């Protein structure tokens, strides 16, 4: 076995434990997205989750998801570098909770990335939720939760950890 194959085998063995590790991790609720000062204080690397509070009475998750899809996927947001609902992740939810996970991401600087999800303009090519540009969502409540992860091998570890947490929580928006 050559050195690259040996390294690949070692890494594959290590990464098999990521799902179990992710199951042990819990997001720490920080604030709602209208609290700019609390968001600005999140100056660390890690994984973040943005959730939406279910404000309207819906009979089921399916009914709520139908409403949300209609509000989120509108012609004015098409091709604007925004994450869209994923059928696979929507179907993973069966019960309507008070807070529904919308998006999970990773960042070396959580405050800055969350700021982008709120304040990016629709026409900007950076992908983000662009919540502040969605006038139809102005009455909705969004919440930020994080997991601080400070590691030397960020670029190697974080994509795997993010994917494991995405599989655990099934956020309904994203590219993956």
Explain this structure.
- The chain is α+β, with helices and mostly antiparallel strands and 176 residues long.
- The chain has one domain: GIY-YIG endonuclease (3-Layer(aba) Sandwich).
- 39% of the residues lie in helices and 19% in strands.
- It is built from seven helices and six strands; from the N terminus they run H-H-E-H-E-H-E-H-E-H-E-H-E.
- Helix 2 (18-24) crosses helix 7.
- The longest helix is centred in the C-terminal third of the chain and has 16 residues, at 154-169.
- 24% of the residues are buried.
Summary keywords:
single chain; 176 residues; alpha+beta; GIY-YIG endonuclease; four-stranded antiparallel β-sheet; two-stranded antiparallel sheet; 7 helices; 6 strands; globular
Task: Furnish the topology, listing elements before pairings.
Blueprint: H1 3-15, H2 18-24, E1 28-32, H3 36-40, E2 46-53, H4 61-72, E3 84-85, H5 87-91, E4 99-107, H6 110-119, E5 142-148, H7 154-169, E6 173-174
Antiparallel strand pairs: 1-5, 2-4, 2-5, 3-6
Q: Give the strand content.
A: 15-25%
**Order of adjacent strands in the largest pleated sheet:** 1-5-2-4
CATH superfamily: GIY-YIG endonuclease
Termini separation (Å)?
33 Å
In angstroms, what is the radius of gyration? 17 Å
The low-pLDDT segments are none
Q: Helix share of residues?
A: 25-40%
Number of domains: 1
Task: Tell me what the CATH architecture is.
Answer: 3-Layer(aba) Sandwich
Shape: globular
């Amino acid at each position: 076995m050559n050195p690259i194959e040996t390294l690949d085998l070692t890494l594959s063995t290590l990464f098999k434990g990521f799902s179990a590790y992710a199951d042990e991790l819990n997001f720490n609720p920080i604030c709602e997205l209208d609290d700019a000062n609390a968001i600005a204080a999140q100056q660390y690397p890690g994984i973040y989750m943005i959730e939406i509070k279910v404000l309207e009475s819906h009979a089921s998750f399916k009914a709520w998801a139908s409403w949300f899809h209609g509000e989120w996927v509108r012609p004015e947001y098409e091709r604007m570098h925004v994450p869209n609902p994923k059928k696979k992740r929507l179907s993973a939810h069966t019960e309507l909770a008070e807070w529904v996970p919308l998006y999970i991401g990773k960042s070396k600087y959580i405050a800055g990335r969350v700021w982008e999800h709120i304040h990016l303009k629709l026409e900007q090519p950076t992908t983000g939720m662009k919540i502040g540009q969605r006038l139809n969502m102005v009455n909705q409540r969004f919440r930020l939760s994080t997991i601080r992860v400070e590691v030397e091998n960020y670029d190697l570890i974080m994509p795997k950890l993010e994917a494991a947490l995405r599989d655990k929580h099934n956020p309904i928006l994203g590219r993956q």
